[in-house]
Specification:
With 96 residues, this protein is an alpha+beta fold. The chain contains three helices and two strands; from the N terminus they run H-H-E-E-H. A two-stranded antiparallel sheet has the order 1-2. The radius of gyration is 24 Å and the shape is elongated.
Length: 96
């Protein structure tokens, strides 16, 4: 008697395949989009998968910051205000 027959019947563990989307650009994390653009990585802050191009840049623009942080988490950490709210003052009259 073989080990397989002694073990009885078994059912394969099939998990549902859920499509993943990038948190930053909301596009799918599929090979056709990421094959030549660096793939994807996991953000260390939000623990979500994002495209490599959606990671925050490091000191040199083509290198990514370590630890890997997505652009959305980097903006939240820095607390960057929106450009429209940065100018609350009235224009100053220039001239005589």
């Amino acid at each position: 008697m073989s080990i397989r027959k002694a073990g009885g019947d078994w059912e394969p563990m099939l998990l549902g395949i859920e499509p993943r989307h990038c948190k930053v650009c909301k596009e799918g994390l599929y090979r056709d989009k990421t094959f030549l653009s660096g793939g994807w990585s996991r953000c260390t802050v939000c623990d979500e998968f994002v495209h490599y191009s959606c990671l925050a840049s490091g000191k040199v623009s083509f290198l990514k910051a370590r630890p890997r942080v997505c652009k959305a988490c980097r903006a939240a950490q820095e607390g960057t205000p929106s450009p429209s709210s940065s100018k609350d003052e009235a224009p100053v009259a220039v001239g005589s």
